[in-house]
Specification:
By secondary structure, the protein is an all-beta fold. It has 2 helices and 58 strands. It has 5 domains: 135 residues, Thrombin, subunit H (Beta Barrel); 90 residues, Thrombin, subunit H (Beta Barrel), CATH 2.40.10.480; 144 residues, Neuraminidase (6 Propeller); 76 residues, Thrombin, subunit H (Beta Barrel), CATH 2.40.10; 201 residues, Methylamine Dehydrogenase, Chain H. Helices cover 2% and strands 52% of the residues. The strands form 14 sheets. Strands 33-34-35-36-37-38-39 form a 7-stranded antiparallel sheet, with no helix packed on it. Strands 1-2-58-57-56 form a 5-stranded antiparallel sheet. 54% of the residues are buried.
């Protein structure tokens, strides 16, 4: 990371979080006002701390003429902004009626029509394809239909104007979809590969459409690996054309037509990614080379040089030497890059940190334009992990962690690559489990250093989901899952010495590790299958010796969403809304119940004030430590969660979670 860790929207003035919330039209009472007082079950005070994470967050970018069109991420409403490069200003904006993020943008050969595909939540039959007429940018983008897959991950427009789309996220395997602008119909062209779980790449010309897929999500088991298929538009037939060197990689990541060649990249997990150039007339004729890092995406070219993004910056592929090198750049970290384009022999890189960088590849010089300063409207994001302590609340977003001062209401945005899925505070220092494949990151507000990586772990163990602190062994404990390989891992990290350990597949090679709790120096690991179904195994694990002590299956028929310990009891919440209580010394299940009206999916648990509290997308609830009965503490939260709900507490026993897209503090006093 670079020296500057504060984004341009670094400090909220004029009333702190409450002032910004008022400016955004979001409901808040400010950090000092109690908004709710409750119930016959006791007294509960709710304090609204304002929007949790605010910035212009993005997930796609495409240059058309002199304008970079940028699709938003986790903002409501979903929008596309138009950044005019010569003036450095936002010159147009349009909103889409559905979805929560835009990962796919494509323009037709004339540059008149910009197409967008959205990611959306499960269920529903709403549109996920849109078209914006750039000849009249003041006219709102219109829905043109939907592909049957829930999420649109990539788009390509053939020279004759036909649009092709790929994605995934529904129960069916990902298909290739076609939109014909003459008829207005969206049709499935079939499922090329029944082993693939996600398609993230498509490229088309008038004769052939190339479909790239694999199992970047939902990997392991019987899921397929990287696959590249050529669809003949005339004969309506598929041919498998995956370069053999890529077959072991999890997925095809990017496709682009360059003259009479097709550029192909793979996403990797245990090895480096690869880049291939195929002859469009004969795809079996190709060259392939190993790239740098685990991803290669967003191809563009200047002369014979092909430029693209990996997870640490920009790379250049030399067609003459069939080799890849990393560009050394003179400027700030680009973080996660969502667009690379060429204009006037200059590269334009759109950063997930919310800026566009103009880069001279010959001199490595860089000029940065912050999109907020250029006129992009900041909004409250959906969020990830929350950690509170030492006077601050930290909330994870996309490429950012918002630090809220609990005394002044000041909010500072800390740039952090990836996403803080969960976090803890130890001795005033923040430690995060950082997705994607970023390991553990560290931030001390007193050190003067920016947030930075403290420990790395195998890249295939890419999604840390639960973080807790083991006071006995003075270790950070992390439960992580592997999206590409299946299974998961258990991490330990000693902040005092930097020592770390990674135990792969401590449950088995099928169940994803999703929860961890600790008691008397023993770690308790919870897991589940990629589906909602069981078995949902609990393993008691010695984090020093690195060995299993015992295991149990609670018999709830569902995977584990969360674990927490109070006294001798281990509480487990399942993804189907079941709760069980395990008496740890006797290893007996002493309570089972169905609380699915309160919690379904990825809930969370925390021990606080001698009780266990839980949260879901819709409710905050408390368990009686004697009867294990459940009481609603805060209903109808509509929590603005990106990847599962969270709840945490501070040193004084206040609870923190989300109501809508606002951070709230809960002071709960059950009736004795």
């Amino acid at each position: 990371m670079q020296n500057s860790h504060i984004t341009r929207r670094s400090v909220l003035q004029a009333g702190g979080a409450a002032g910004l919330a008022a400016a955004l039209g979001l409901a808040t009472s400010g950090p000092a006002a109690a908004t709710d007082k409750a119930t016959a079950a006791g007294t509960t005070d709710i304090v609204d701390l304002g929007p949790a994470v605010v910035q212009f967050s993005l997930m796609s970018s495409l240059l058309v003429g002199d304008t970079v069109y940028i699709g938003s991420r986790n903002l409501d409403p979903v929008r596309i902004i138009a950044f005019h490069v010569p003036t450095g200003k936002i010159v147009a904006e349009t909103e889409l009626a559905t979805g929560y993020s835009i990962q796919a943008l494509a323009a037709d050969i004339t540059g008149r029509y910009l197409y967008a595909g959205v990611l959306q939540n499960a269920g529903g039959t709403q549109a996920n394809l849109y078209r914006w007429d750039l000849a009249t940018p003041s006219t709102k983008a219109t829905a043109i239909g939907r592909i049957g897959d829930r999420d649109v991950r990539d788009l390509s427009v053939a020279p004759d104007g036909h649009l092709y789309a790929v994605g995934g996220g529904s129960s069916a395997k990902p298909a290739l979809w076609e939109y014909d602008p003459a008829t207005g119909q969206v049709l499935s062209l079939g499922i090329p590969d029944t082993g693939a779980t996600l398609a993230r790449a498509v490229a088309a010309n008038n004769g052939t459409v190339f479909f790239g897929a694999g199992s970047t999500l939902g990997g392991g088991g019987s899921a397929g690996r990287a696959c590249l298929w050529a669809y003949d538009r005339a004969t309506k037939t598929y041919t498998q054309v995956t370069p053999p060197e890529m077959l072991a990689d999890p997925s095809i990541r990017e496709l682009a037509v360059l003259g009479d060649k097709l550029l192909v990249s793979s996403a990797a997990s245990t090895q480096e990614s690869k880049i291939a150039i195929l002859d469009l007339g004969n795809p079996t004729s190709y060259t392939v080379t190993t790239s740098i890092g685990k991803t290669a995406k967003n191809f563009t070219s200047i002369g014979d040089q092909v430029y693209f993004a990996n997870e640490t910056g920009l790379c250049v592929y030399s067609r003459a030497t069939n080799s890849v090198s990393q560009l050394t750049l003179n400027g700030p970290s680009l973080g996660e890059i969502w667009g690379v384009d060429a204009r006037n022999n200059t590269l334009l890189a759109t950063s997930g940190y919310g800026f566009v960088a103009e880069i001279n590849p010959r001199t490595s010089s860089m000029a940065v334009t912050d999109l907020g300063e250029a006129g992009a409207s900041a909004s409250a994001q959906t969020v990830m992990g929350i950690a509170v302590g030492a006077g601050f609340a930290y909330v994870g977003g996309n490429g950012v962690i918002a630090r809220h001062s609990l005394s002044s209401g000041e909010v500072v945005n800390l740039q952090s690559q990836g996403e803080a899925k969960d976090a803890v505070i130890v001795d005033g220092v923040l430690y995060t489990g950082q997705y994607n494949s970023q390991g553990i990151w560290k931030y001390s507000p007193l050190s003067g250093q920016p947030i930075h990586q403290a420990a790395d772990f195998p890249a295939a163990q890419n999604r840390p989901l639960d973080v807790c602190w083991d006071e006995v062994n003075r270790l950070m404990l992390v439960a992580a899952q592997s999206d590409t390989e299946g299974g998961g891992s258990f991490w330990t990290y000693d902040p005092a010495t930097g020592a770390k350990q990674c135990f792969s597949n401590p449950i088995d090679n099928r169940q994803l590790l999703r929860a961890v709790a600790t008691r008397e120096g023993v770690s308790y690991l919870g897991a589940g299958l990629p589906t909602l179904d069981g078995p949902g195994t609990i393993v008691a694990f010695d984090p020093i010796a690195g060995k299993e002590l015992w295991r149990i299956e609670p018999g709830m028929g569902a995977g584990i969403a969360a674990l927490a310990i109070q006294g001798r009891h281990l509480y487990g919440l399942t993804r189907k809304g079941g709760i069980f209580v395990l008496d740890i010394p006797t290893r007996r299940i002493v309570h089972r119940a169905d609380i699915s009206p309160l919690s379904y999916g990825f809930g969370a648990l925390v021990a606080n004030r001698s009780a266990i509290y839980g949260v879901s997308d819709t409710n905050v609830f408390r368990f009686d430590p004697k009867t294990f009965g459940v009481t609603t503490v805060l209903a109808n939260t509509s929590g603005g969660w990106y990847s599962g709900s969270h709840i945490t507490n501070d040193e004084d026993g206040y609870l923190y979670t989300m109501r809508g897209r606002n951070l709230v503090r809960i002071d709960d006093h059950p009736r004795k």
